[in-house]
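TA notes, week 10

Several of you asked for a full example with nothing omitted. So below is the full record: C-alpha coordinates for the whole chain, then the designed sequence directly under it. When grading your own attempts, check the secondary structure regions first.
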Protein backbone atom coordinates (compact mmCIF):
# COMPACT_ATOMS: atom_id res chain seq x y z
CA UNK A 1 0.00 0.00 0.00
CA UNK A 2 1.39 3.39 -1.04
CA UNK A 3 -0.88 5.73 0.90
CA UNK A 4 -2.16 9.19 0.21
CA UNK A 5 -0.86 11.11 3.21
CA UNK A 6 -1.98 14.30 4.93
CA UNK A 7 0.50 15.91 7.32
CA UNK A 8 -1.11 18.19 9.89
CA UNK A 9 1.42 20.65 11.22
CA UNK A 10 4.15 22.46 9.27
CA UNK A 11 6.45 22.74 12.27
CA UNK A 12 9.97 21.26 11.87
CA UNK A 13 8.75 17.82 12.93
CA UNK A 14 5.84 17.99 10.48
CA UNK A 15 8.16 18.99 7.63
CA UNK A 16 10.44 16.10 8.52
CA UNK A 17 7.47 13.72 8.41
CA UNK A 18 6.45 15.08 5.00
CA UNK A 19 9.94 14.50 3.64
CA UNK A 20 10.08 11.01 5.13
CA UNK A 21 6.63 10.11 3.78
CA UNK A 22 7.72 11.14 0.29
CA UNK A 23 10.90 9.05 0.57
CA UNK A 24 8.86 6.08 1.79
CA UNK A 25 6.62 6.17 -1.26
CA UNK A 26 3.53 8.20 -0.35
CA UNK A 27 1.65 8.42 -3.64
CA UNK A 28 0.15 11.83 -2.78
CA UNK A 29 1.19 14.27 -0.05
CA UNK A 30 -0.73 17.18 1.43
CA UNK A 31 -0.05 19.53 4.34
CA UNK A 32 -2.36 21.53 6.59
CA UNK A 33 -1.38 24.16 9.13
CA UNK A 34 -3.58 27.04 10.34
CA UNK A 35 -0.53 29.26 10.92
CA UNK A 36 -0.30 31.70 8.00
CA UNK A 37 3.49 31.96 8.05
CA UNK A 38 3.93 28.20 8.15
CA UNK A 39 1.36 27.77 5.38
CA UNK A 40 3.40 30.11 3.18
CA UNK A 41 6.49 28.01 3.91
CA UNK A 42 4.63 24.88 2.81
CA UNK A 43 3.68 26.50 -0.47
CA UNK A 44 7.24 27.73 -1.06
CA UNK A 45 8.38 24.12 -0.62
CA UNK A 46 6.09 23.11 -3.48
CA UNK A 47 3.66 21.11 -1.31
CA UNK A 48 -0.10 21.24 -1.65
CA UNK A 49 -1.56 23.11 1.35
CA UNK A 50 -5.11 23.00 2.69
CA UNK A 51 -6.31 25.99 4.69
CA UNK A 52 -8.74 24.10 6.94
CA UNK A 53 -8.70 20.60 8.43
CA UNK A 54 -12.22 19.67 7.21
CA UNK A 55 -11.25 20.68 3.67
CA UNK A 56 -8.04 18.64 3.95
CA UNK A 57 -9.93 15.57 5.17
CA UNK A 58 -12.33 15.87 2.24
CA UNK A 59 -9.39 14.82 0.05
CA UNK A 60 -9.86 11.34 1.62
CA UNK A 61 -6.26 10.67 2.72
CA UNK A 62 -5.43 7.08 3.58
CA UNK A 63 -3.28 8.24 6.50
CA UNK A 64 -2.94 11.39 8.57
CA UNK A 65 0.29 12.30 10.35
CA UNK A 66 -0.56 14.54 13.29
CA UNK A 67 2.14 16.95 14.43
CA UNK A 68 1.92 20.70 15.11
CA UNK A 69 0.46 22.30 18.22
CA UNK A 70 0.32 19.83 21.10
CA UNK A 71 -3.04 21.01 22.41
CA UNK A 72 -4.70 20.45 19.01
CA UNK A 73 -3.43 16.91 18.38
CA UNK A 74 -6.17 14.94 20.13
CA UNK A 75 -8.98 16.72 18.29
CA UNK A 76 -7.11 16.43 14.99
CA UNK A 77 -6.58 12.69 15.47
CA UNK A 78 -10.24 12.24 16.42
CA UNK A 79 -11.36 14.04 13.25
CA UNK A 80 -8.97 12.02 11.09
CA UNK A 81 -10.22 8.71 12.47
CA UNK A 82 -13.80 9.86 12.00
CA UNK A 83 -12.97 10.58 8.36
CA UNK A 84 -11.77 7.00 7.95
CA UNK A 85 -8.01 7.63 7.94
CA UNK A 86 -5.26 5.75 9.71
CA UNK A 87 -3.38 7.99 12.15
CA UNK A 88 0.27 8.45 13.09
CA UNK A 89 0.11 10.66 16.17
CA UNK A 90 2.99 12.60 17.66
CA UNK A 91 2.12 11.96 21.30
CA UNK A 92 0.16 14.87 22.77
CA UNK A 93 1.87 15.63 26.08
CA UNK A 94 -1.03 17.79 27.25
CA UNK A 95 -3.63 15.04 26.78
CA UNK A 96 -5.35 13.12 29.57
CA UNK A 97 -5.40 9.34 29.83
CA UNK A 98 -9.14 9.39 29.06
CA UNK A 99 -8.58 11.32 25.81
CA UNK A 100 -5.83 9.01 24.61
CA UNK A 101 -7.71 5.80 25.42
CA UNK A 102 -10.79 7.20 23.67
CA UNK A 103 -8.67 7.55 20.51
CA UNK A 104 -7.55 3.92 20.74
CA UNK A 105 -11.17 2.83 21.19
CA UNK A 106 -12.27 4.95 18.23
CA UNK A 107 -9.51 3.45 16.05
CA UNK A 108 -10.52 -0.09 17.06
CA UNK A 109 -14.20 0.58 16.34
CA UNK A 110 -13.37 1.89 12.86
CA UNK A 111 -10.71 -0.77 12.19
CA UNK A 112 -8.03 1.89 11.69
CA UNK A 113 -4.38 1.93 12.71
CA UNK A 114 -3.45 4.38 15.46
CA UNK A 115 0.27 4.59 16.11
CA UNK A 116 1.86 6.90 18.66
CA UNK A 117 5.02 8.41 17.22
CA UNK A 118 7.58 7.36 19.83
CA UNK A 119 10.68 7.51 17.63
CA UNK A 120 12.96 6.62 20.53
CA UNK A 121 11.62 3.05 20.27
CA UNK A 122 13.33 2.85 16.87
CA UNK A 123 16.59 4.51 17.87
CA UNK A 124 19.57 2.11 17.84
CA UNK A 125 20.86 3.60 21.11
CA UNK A 126 17.72 2.65 23.07
CA UNK A 127 17.59 -0.75 21.37
CA UNK A 128 21.22 -1.38 22.35
CA UNK A 129 20.64 -0.28 25.95
CA UNK A 130 17.57 -2.48 26.24
CA UNK A 131 19.39 -5.51 24.80
CA UNK A 132 22.33 -5.15 27.20
CA UNK A 133 20.10 -4.59 30.23
CA UNK A 134 17.78 -7.51 29.42
CA UNK A 135 20.77 -9.79 28.81
CA UNK A 136 21.99 -9.07 32.34
CA UNK A 137 25.20 -7.37 31.15
CA UNK A 138 24.67 -4.48 33.59
CA UNK A 139 23.86 -6.66 36.60
CA UNK A 140 20.78 -5.80 38.62
CA UNK A 141 19.29 -2.48 37.52
CA UNK A 142 19.50 0.26 40.12
CA UNK A 143 18.58 3.48 38.28
CA UNK A 144 17.44 4.77 34.90
CA UNK A 145 17.99 8.36 33.73
CA UNK A 146 16.73 10.28 30.70
CA UNK A 147 17.33 13.89 29.70
CA UNK A 148 16.08 16.04 26.84
CA UNK A 149 17.61 19.49 26.34
CA UNK A 150 16.37 21.27 23.26
CA UNK A 151 16.87 25.05 23.69
CA UNK A 152 13.94 27.44 23.39
CA UNK A 153 15.12 28.73 20.02
CA UNK A 154 14.98 25.89 17.54
CA UNK A 155 18.27 24.55 16.25
CA UNK A 156 17.53 22.31 13.25
CA UNK A 157 19.00 18.87 12.69
CA UNK A 158 21.62 18.52 9.96
CA UNK A 159 19.29 18.39 6.96
CA UNK A 160 16.37 20.40 8.28
CA UNK A 161 15.62 24.02 7.30
CA UNK A 162 15.18 26.57 10.07
CA UNK A 163 11.51 27.33 10.79
CA UNK A 164 9.90 30.70 10.28
CA UNK A 165 8.75 30.71 13.91
CA UNK A 166 11.67 29.81 16.21
CA UNK A 167 9.93 29.44 19.55
CA UNK A 168 9.47 25.92 20.92
CA UNK A 169 7.28 26.30 24.04
CA UNK A 170 7.48 23.66 26.74
CA UNK A 171 3.96 24.35 28.02
CA UNK A 172 3.46 23.07 31.55
CA UNK A 173 6.95 21.58 31.55
CA UNK A 174 5.73 17.98 31.44
CA UNK A 175 4.39 17.88 27.89
CA UNK A 176 7.79 16.92 26.49
CA UNK A 177 8.60 13.87 28.66
CA UNK A 178 6.29 11.38 26.91
CA UNK A 179 8.90 9.66 24.70
CA UNK A 180 11.45 9.42 27.52
CA UNK A 181 8.78 8.14 29.93
CA UNK A 182 7.80 5.45 27.42
CA UNK A 183 11.46 4.38 27.13
CA UNK A 184 11.86 4.15 30.91
CA UNK A 185 8.68 2.10 31.33
CA UNK A 186 10.00 -0.57 28.97
CA UNK A 187 12.35 -1.65 31.77
CA UNK A 188 10.45 -0.30 34.75
CA UNK A 189 6.75 -1.15 34.36
CA UNK A 190 6.08 -1.39 38.11
CA UNK A 191 6.25 2.33 38.97
CA UNK A 192 4.40 2.99 42.21
CA UNK A 193 5.48 6.51 43.27
CA UNK A 194 5.83 9.71 41.24
CA UNK A 195 7.28 13.09 42.22
CA UNK A 196 7.64 16.00 39.80
CA UNK A 197 8.61 19.66 39.78
CA UNK A 198 8.71 22.35 37.14
CA UNK A 199 10.39 25.75 36.98
CA UNK A 200 9.72 28.96 35.10
CA UNK A 201 12.61 31.43 34.93
CA UNK A 202 10.99 33.95 32.59
CA UNK A 203 13.91 33.69 30.18
CA UNK A 204 11.87 32.07 27.41
CA UNK A 205 10.24 34.22 24.71
CA UNK A 206 6.88 32.78 25.85
CA UNK A 207 5.43 32.41 29.34
CA UNK A 208 6.06 28.69 29.72
CA UNK A 209 7.96 26.38 32.04
CA UNK A 210 11.58 25.97 31.04
CA UNK A 211 12.47 22.87 33.05
CA UNK A 212 10.75 19.75 34.37
CA UNK A 213 12.11 16.98 36.58
CA UNK A 214 10.23 13.74 37.24
CA UNK A 215 11.34 11.08 39.72
CA UNK A 216 9.84 7.59 39.56
CA UNK A 217 10.24 4.80 42.12
CA UNK A 218 9.28 1.25 41.30
CA UNK A 219 7.97 -1.53 43.53
CA UNK A 220 11.21 -3.43 42.86
CA UNK A 221 13.33 -0.54 44.15
CA UNK A 222 14.57 0.97 40.86
CA UNK A 223 14.67 4.76 40.71
CA UNK A 224 14.30 6.72 37.48
CA UNK A 225 14.66 10.41 36.67
CA UNK A 226 13.43 12.27 33.60
CA UNK A 227 14.64 15.81 32.97
CA UNK A 228 13.47 18.17 30.24
CA UNK A 229 15.27 21.49 29.78
CA UNK A 230 14.15 24.17 27.32
CA UNK A 231 17.24 26.28 28.07
CA UNK A 232 19.77 23.50 27.50
CA UNK A 233 22.57 23.93 24.97
CA UNK A 234 23.61 22.23 22.84
CA UNK A 235 20.33 20.47 22.06
CA UNK A 236 20.86 16.91 23.25
CA UNK A 237 19.22 13.78 24.57
CA UNK A 238 20.64 11.10 26.79
CA UNK A 239 19.68 7.77 28.34
CA UNK A 240 21.57 6.01 31.12
CA UNK A 241 20.93 2.58 32.60
CA UNK A 242 22.78 2.00 35.87
CA UNK A 243 23.36 -1.54 37.12
CA UNK A 244 25.32 -3.18 39.91
CA UNK A 245 27.93 -4.47 37.43
CA UNK A 246 28.05 -1.70 34.84
CA UNK A 247 26.48 1.54 33.66
CA UNK A 248 25.62 2.15 30.01
CA UNK A 249 25.01 5.70 28.78
CA UNK A 250 24.02 7.19 25.44
CA UNK A 251 24.43 10.88 24.65
CA UNK A 252 23.15 12.11 21.31
CA UNK A 253 26.24 14.25 20.67
CA UNK A 254 28.81 11.75 21.99
CA UNK A 255 27.59 8.21 21.44
CA UNK A 256 27.69 5.23 23.83
CA UNK A 257 29.86 4.76 26.91
CA UNK A 258 30.06 1.67 29.13
CA UNK A 259 31.50 1.92 32.65
CA UNK A 260 32.53 -1.41 34.16
CA UNK A 261 32.34 -1.39 37.96
CA UNK A 262 34.90 -4.16 38.54
CA UNK A 263 37.65 -2.72 36.34
CA UNK A 264 36.63 0.93 36.70
CA UNK A 265 37.21 1.22 32.96
CA UNK A 266 35.08 3.18 30.51
CA UNK A 267 34.66 2.10 26.90
CA UNK A 268 33.27 4.60 24.38
CA UNK A 269 31.61 3.82 21.04
CA UNK A 270 30.58 6.49 18.48
CA UNK A 271 26.93 6.42 17.39
CA UNK A 272 26.02 9.13 14.90
CA UNK A 273 22.26 8.65 14.75
CA UNK A 274 19.83 11.46 15.53
CA UNK A 275 16.33 10.97 16.85
CA UNK A 276 15.27 12.65 13.60
CA UNK A 277 16.78 9.68 11.75
CA UNK A 278 14.80 7.24 13.89
CA UNK A 279 11.60 9.09 12.98
CA UNK A 280 11.95 7.82 9.42
CA UNK A 281 12.11 4.24 10.70
CA UNK A 282 9.09 4.88 12.91
CA UNK A 283 7.09 6.19 9.96
CA UNK A 284 8.24 3.24 7.87
CA UNK A 285 6.89 0.95 10.58
CA UNK A 286 3.58 2.81 10.42
CA UNK A 287 3.38 2.24 6.67
CA UNK A 288 4.13 -1.46 7.30
CA UNK A 289 1.20 -1.50 9.76
CA UNK A 290 -1.04 -0.19 6.98
CA UNK A 291 0.05 -3.11 4.81
CA UNK A 292 -0.77 -5.52 7.64
CA UNK A 293 2.87 -6.55 8.11
CA UNK A 294 3.41 -5.02 11.57
CA UNK A 295 1.55 -3.85 14.67
CA UNK A 296 1.96 -0.45 16.38
CA UNK A 297 4.64 -0.78 19.09
CA UNK A 298 2.72 1.25 21.68
CA UNK A 299 -0.49 -0.54 22.62
CA UNK A 300 -3.55 0.92 24.30
CA UNK A 301 -2.35 -0.69 27.55
CA UNK A 302 1.06 0.97 27.16
CA UNK A 303 -0.57 4.32 26.44
CA UNK A 304 -2.85 4.06 29.48
CA UNK A 305 0.15 3.50 31.76
CA UNK A 306 2.17 6.31 30.18
CA UNK A 307 -0.61 8.85 30.56
CA UNK A 308 -1.59 7.68 34.03
CA UNK A 309 1.96 8.40 35.20
CA UNK A 310 2.06 11.67 33.27
CA UNK A 311 -1.15 12.72 35.00
CA UNK A 312 0.33 11.75 38.36
CA UNK A 313 3.41 13.87 37.56
CA UNK A 314 1.18 16.88 36.87
CA UNK A 315 -0.65 16.32 40.14
CA UNK A 316 2.66 16.06 41.96
CA UNK A 317 4.04 19.25 40.41
CA UNK A 318 0.88 21.12 41.35
CA UNK A 319 0.82 19.87 44.96
CA UNK A 320 4.54 19.27 45.68
CA UNK A 321 3.50 15.83 46.94
CA UNK A 322 4.47 12.27 46.10
CA UNK A 323 1.68 10.59 44.12
CA UNK A 324 1.08 6.85 44.36
CA UNK A 325 0.00 5.13 41.12
Amino acid sequence: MTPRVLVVGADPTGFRHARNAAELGAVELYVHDPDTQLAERVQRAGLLHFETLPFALESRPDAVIVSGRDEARVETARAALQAGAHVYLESPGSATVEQVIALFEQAAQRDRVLMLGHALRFHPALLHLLDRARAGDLGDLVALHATHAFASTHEPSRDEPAPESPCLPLGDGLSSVVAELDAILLLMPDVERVFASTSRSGLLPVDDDDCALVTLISASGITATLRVDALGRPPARSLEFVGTAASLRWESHRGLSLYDVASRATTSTPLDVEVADAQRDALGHFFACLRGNQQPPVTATDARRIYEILGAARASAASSAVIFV
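The two ends are 41 Å apart (CA to CA). Use that as a sanity check on your answer.
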